[in-house]
Structure formats: structure tokens, C-alpha cells
Amino acid sequence: MADKSQPEQAAIALLRDFEERFRVAHAPPVPVERIATTLLDLLVEECDDVRSVPGAPADQGRLSGMVVPATRIIWLDRTECARSRGRRRFTIAHECGHWVLHIAGADQPVCCRPEDVSEQADVEKVRQLRRREAEANAFARELLMPESLVVEHAHATGCNLAALAERFDVSVPAIRLRLLTLGLLPAWMASVPTGPHR
Ligand SMILES: [Zn+2]
Question: Ligand 1 mean position to 167 CA, how many Å?
């Protein structure tokens, strides 16, 4: 695992910690909400508009999620959650990534828009925020679709995307991208478009 990035290593360590402490088997689907609530001691809540949560920026467009250090709450957009269970799980994992990687003692909430960050912020801040979003996404992918488990189940199912998505409780585009980046997708499948990511 020496070639793993720091966010991926942090996700692997978090999952291992959870499985050891709560004697949970290393198998998909990863119980991401239970990890957030029991291991990280966070609450997961949904609301109609995350921008209405105290402390959220009202001037940055719609938010998919936000994690607030003072209340230890992960806020999720109810509409997105209703649309896709996989999306809901991914956003929880993404917010756990911010909690583990970026919050550590800070008191400012971390807010996450569906797309990238605002162009209105200054260049250095945008660069820094984009890096943090990319790190949270790498963390989320590794937490929900650990490489060792994906390899195992990809071989067992012959890279059946629908079966894998169901087994890992993620969207088909998410598992497809994961297989692709891990070099597990047969070439003939890699060229088939599946629509927008997640
Ligand atoms: Zn984020």
C-alpha cells in the first residue's frame, strides 16, 4: 500500500479501526453511516437546504453537504439523498473525509457544493479548497470501495457492474470509475459510457 495517497491511507486506517473496535467483518457494503455516528461521534441529518443551517454560506449556490465542528453534525441535502442512496453514502463518506483530514481542532464548518468551488474566491484559496475537495473524494472512494475488497469481488463477479454496485451499495458510475482507476475493467468495458459520474 506504499503507493497510496495520504487521504486513502487515512480511509484505510479508519475502516480498520472501526472493524477492530466493533468486531465487524471486512466485507462490503461498508457501513459508512455507522462509522460516522459510532466511531467519529457525528450526527447525520438531512435538510431541505443546507444553506439554511447556521454558519453556512448563503452566497455560494446549493450545497450537497456540510460538516459543522461545533455541533458535530453532517448535514445532507434531502433532495439529493432521495434521488440516490449511493450519492447519500458518498456524501457522508466525503464529509467524514473532511472531518478526519481537514477539521482536526478547527472550528469552521466545511461546506461542499455539488460542483467545484466559487470562482469569486481568490486564486490561492480556490486552489486550496479544490485540493481539499479532491482529498475528501479520494478518502470517500477508498472508504466505500476499499481496493482489496473491490479486487476480490471484481474477480468473483467477472466485473459485473450492477452486481458490484449493489454489493458495495454505491452507484454504477462510482464503481465503474473505481474499477477503471484500479485497472480492473476489461478494455471492452472501459470504453462504454455510463453517463455522469456518481
Ligand atoms: Zn467537500
Answer: 25
Task: For residue 189, give the amino acid letter.
Answer: M
Domain edges within the chain = 6-144
Q: Are 138 and 178 in contact (CB under 8 A)?
A: no
- Ordered per-residue pLDDT tens for the chain, 198 residues: 446 789 999 999 999 999 999 999 999 999 999 999 999 999 999 999 999 998 888 777 889 999 999 899 999 999 999 999 999 999 999 999 999 999 876 667 777 777 543 344 456 666 777 888 889 999 999 999 999 999 999 999 999 999 999 999 999 989 999 999 899 987 777 765 555 544
Distance 183 CA to ligand 1 centre (A): 26
Instruction: Compute, in angstroms, the gap from residue 158 CA to the centroid of ligand 1.
Output: 33
Q: 6-144, which class in CATH? A: mainly alpha
**Centre of ligand 1 from the C-alpha of residue 168, in Å:** 22
At residue 74, the 3 state secondary structure works out as strand
Does this model's pTM top 0.90? My answer is no
User: Is 103 within 8 Å of 139 (Cβ atoms)?
Assistant: no
